[in-house]
Design a protein that fits this description.
- By secondary structure, the protein is α+β, with helices and mostly antiparallel strands.
- Helices cover 20% and strands 26% of the residues.
- It has 8 helices and 16 strands.
- The chain has helices at residues 19-26, 32-40, 84-92, 122-125, 156-167, 246-253, 267-273, 303-312; strands at residues 6-9, 45-46, 49-50, 62-65, 94-97, 101-106, 137-138, 147-153, 172-180, 187-191, 194-197, 204-207, 219-228, 232-239, 280-288, 294-298.
- A hairpin with an 8-residue loop joins strand 7 and strand 8.
Length: 331
């Protein structure tokens, strides 16, 4: 058993995760009873306060981790392994890889992390690079139906630096989206607190008063790249915070829901969407490379976004290098 008491910080990719699940992802050998006992005795604390195993964690929260018992040795073959096909699939998603960073091109429909009904997800596929210290770590996340750039850290130090860049809002993330209508003004920033309501598959983010219990600040920059008359607009979106469904909730609040969104769409946007899937794509990430210098990664359009572009007549060459140049309040 390690006798060291640690303070670890919740990554952006883990915003909203249950405390007990957060522990078991890091130390899979821990039983639910062990986590309960550590929480009940006050050994586990979140931002200095006692916490229950079912409490939800927020990105950036400080978790006091007591000494963790060593795992009991398992017999060979107990650990589930990926098939050669899964390994090849995971490797096929790589956009960029060096000795500290992996950038994946996450397809729409593939969850980043598992759940009760989700057995195929990015987190599981990371075993393609090995286990233990060899296993890459998630440092942020994308919604299941959002395609595009997903960064991973190779080793704890690289993951810590990358996660820190996201937590300190030093990562410039640019999403492309096709929304209903033509937002006016065509560019700007929306600062609108959001609060989770509902549970599991019915969980949704709704606008909230910043003083409301459970409300979290959320900020998004937006800029119009092109329009299909007044029917739809191709937007560049840049989140400064990492709330669940932030871009989808903000665009709905503006009256211009993202097309193909079954959760945040309305009757009009659903009719306009037709057979289109969610028109949201993590196009580009720019941040400091953990080994020095700049890391800039772009993901090509997904099949789902290509269908949207074809339907409305958009062309990638319409996009400027920096769609946010000159937009007020962009940081």
């Amino acid at each position: 058993m390690s006798r060291e008491v640690k303070t670890l910080y919740v990554a952006e990719a883990e915003d909203g995760i249950r405390l007990d699940r957060w522990f078991r992802r890091r130390w899979p050998h821990l039983s639910h009873v062990q986590v309960q006992k550590m929480a009940r005795s006050g050994q586990i604390r979140v931002d200095g306060s006692r916490a229950k195993p079912e409490d939800r964690l927020t990105a950036g929260a400080a978790v006091r981790v007591p000494p963790i018992p060593d795992p009991v040795e398992k017999t060979p073959g107990e650990r589930p392994t990926l098939s050669d096909r899964d390994v090849a699939y995971a490797r096929s998603l790589v956009l960029f890889e060096d000795d500290m960073v992996i950038a994946l091109n996450k397809p729409a429909g593939l969850a980043v992390q598992g759940g009760t009904k989700t057995t195929k997800h990015v987190d599981r596929l990371l075993s393609a690079w090995g286990e233990g210290l060899e296993r890459p770590r998630l440092v942020h996340r994308l919604d299941r139906d959002t395609s595009g750039v997903l960064l991973l850290g190779k080793g704890p130090e690289a993951a810590k630096r990358l996660a820190g860049a996201f937590a300190r809002r030093q990562a410039k993330k640019t999403y492309w989206a096709i929304v209903m209508g033509a937002p006016k003004p065509g560019a700007g920033q929306i600062d609108l607190a959001l609060k989770k309501s509902g549970i599991n598959d019915f969980e949704i983010m709704r606008p909230a008063d910043p003083k409301e219990h459970g409300a979290e600040p959320a900020e998004t920059a937006f800029a119009t790249i092109s329009r299909a008359a007044h029917r739809a607009s191709w937007m560049a979106l840049r989140p400064f915070t990492g709330r669940t469904h932030q871009l989808r909730a903000h665009m709905k609040a503006m009256g211009h829901p993202i097309l193909g969104d079954p959760k945040y769409g309305d009757e009009a946007s659903n009719e306009l969407s037709g057979p289109l899937k969610l028109q949201l794509h993590a196009r580009r990430i720019e941040l400091d490379h953990p080994g020095g210098g700049k890391l800039i990664v772009e993901a090509p359009l997904s099949p789902e976004m290509k269908a949207g572009f074809a339907h409305f007549g958009f062309s990638e060459d319409e996009a400027e290098q920096d769609p946010f140049a000159g937009v007020k309040r962009i940081r």
